[in-house]
Write a structure and sequence with these properties.
Blueprint (H helix, E strand, L loop, with lengths): L1 H10 L16 H25 L9 E4 L1 H11 L1 H4 L5 E4 L6 H34 L5
Helix pairs in contact: 2-5
Amino acid sequence: MFVAQLLYRVLQVRKNSKRNRMNLIESSHSELLGRAMDAYSLRQKITATNIANADTPGYKRHEVHFEEALREAEANGGTASMKNTNPSIIETDQNVILENELIEQADTQYRFQLVTRALRHHFDIVRGGITGSNRY
């Protein structure tokens, strides 16, 4: 559910912007989508590490926190501060449960695909503006 809210926020047109021009290639939207892709890539790696160490005695589950940091940044500074949000890796006190990790992996893959699609759409719009073609 949060991914849909993130994509809505990222793709939402800000009508009351103080700037009259916008750098479309390096906009805060594309930066935020890029950070989301980095966070989901990191989450995939951490989930794979959890799966690989599921049978290691004493190993505790690790997780990546990104969406929580985005919510805090949005509440405190709006969209502008969201682009400076970084994921964090947390070691939990939980043991690794393989089924939960596989679900986490599938969920992260889905989120990554949604963000990739949104970023591709963003650059399709930029390309259309440059070439004059409106085929997306």
